[in-house]
Write a structure and sequence with these properties.
heterodimer, A: 5-stranded antiparallel sheet, disordered N terminus, B: mainly alpha, elongated
Amino acid sequence: MNKKRQNGITKWNKYPSLKRLGLVFLLWIGILMAGYLFTKQDAFLYQETIVKITHVTQRLNSDAKQTDPDYWQEINAIVQNGKDKNKQVVFHSTYTKSQIASESYKKNDQLFVRISKTEDGTFKVKVIDVKRDTYVFFLAAFMILSLLFLAKKQGILTLLSLISNALVFFLCFRGMSKNIFFLYAWIVLSVAFCLITLVFTSGFHKKTWGALLSSLCSVAFMALLYQISIYQNQQISYELMPKMVATLPLKEIYRTSVMIGLLGAVMDVSITMQASVEQLLIIKPDLTLKKLILSIQEIGYDVMGTMVNILFFSYIGSSLPLLIMKVYHEYNLSAIFQDTLMFDAGRFLIGAIGLVIAIPISGFFSVLLFFKFRRKKQ
Amino acid sequence: MKALLYLGMLLFLLMSAVGGERGIKSFFTLGINALIAFISIYLIGYKAPIFAVFVLSTMLFGVVTIFFQNGWNRKTKASMIACTILTLLLGFGIFLFVIPAHMVGFDEIELQSSDATYLSSNVSLSMFIILLMSLIWAMLGALIDTSIAVSSAMNEVCLYKPLIGKKELFQRGMKFGGSIVGTMVSTLIFVGLGESMMLIFYYINYRYPVYRILNSKSFLLDVSGIFISCISCSFIIPMTALVFAGLTEKERKITEKLIKKQEEI
């Protein structure tokens, strides 16, 4: 019995027994519940005033036949922290039925507010934002747990690489003066992100260096293409980008965002290619170059179609709400394209071309690295 | 504008050069998907019943991406079933999550843009379903890709070992899935990081304190797109492995019987 259990632990690739699965599941629920309870009670950590809604009464404030009727809410709430703790406050708020630009508050919601005393002794409450940390925690914890559950060691390494990438990003931002950062950050960041992610996820192997070389080459190629096609283009008005800050160098930021969005896909293709070629040559050491190239093409087909889909859905999903609202308000097609779609379309196209170009490049490097090396050995 | 057209043409040329016939097929899959997205956005914009459009377009995406691109066989069938089940489950999960988290509608940064007041006036659409749609669409690519990868690998295993047991087949699928989910997650996160780059500089520029970022709608909206994709591509692995192992169970029993008969003869 003991031996069995040990085997189960040391051989992580062996699938856990039902008992262990149950334990893991309980642990999951425990962590999620503990986090939930904690983040619901963590008002004392904040300096801003937080109130918890105890009671809401609402009524229709306008004609119900209106396209987007208004509602009026009277909200009773209790202050959760600070010197006014446990004090009752009452305030009013309005929202529209679609909730597109306003929030409808419900019982037990927690809000950040600013409370000021008026001259006649009553409180005036201004809502700043909803407290959403519980939900951020929930999503992050759920993702991390599912990654650890499925990929185990690989999952931990992936998480570590993500954390180090984030650290590098902020160190880079702190370390460079602003102008230099916006001009050159994409170069430093692409090299650092590639190095960190590949070393963490596949270790110090020959395939890692092959993948690193081929992804850097692909990124360099795409940077050139980006320079010619989009960066030099004078017609693009970057001020139309959503969520932009007009005082920042938008052209440079857009380039940084495009180049970083490209990295993941390129690295994925490169490491898959290197790993499969290595595996192939271990299984069939007497493979001819011609047959190897055929297999590389085969791997390329498999990777390409699906990766392009990932990029496509990811970009279309994120720009969807704005697109729908613009179509709804009858903006014409060229305006919609220019304002909202264009920047995501640029990101998508550069990313997709990057991952397609990464296939022959990484194929070339894998042949160079594994095939040539094998010959020398012989 | 022209630059993007040229880039699109370049993409087509490269895909057909690198991928041959299958590259062209992938490009057409992409084109059809773009057309579906375009038509459904216009249908919703012109006040067609939004939920029906959402369900229909999502199903069409699945059918086109799985069956048109990868053919009609047992691995694509298993993927389709697994993806459908997981999309329904995740849709329900998002439904429970989104409303208490106050994620519906424009976020506070979008509301400050110049045309936000015009865009948010007189809207009769359900912003909740639009949000659901954007989250589900964003994860669809990763979901389908992982599912197809897992079922193809299991199919390979079945071809080499036709008599493999249900449990072992499931374990093989899980193991293979575990080996690809790491790179998949990094890909998704880099794509998400690229998309949120503007937002990050917005926070830095206006000196948002950390607690404001963690509680803001814009942050939660961006993060949820990425994280739900990651969650979906982790959970699709056991789902696909389970469905595929279940589907091949019958075939395995038939082969077993045949082999037994042959041995008797």
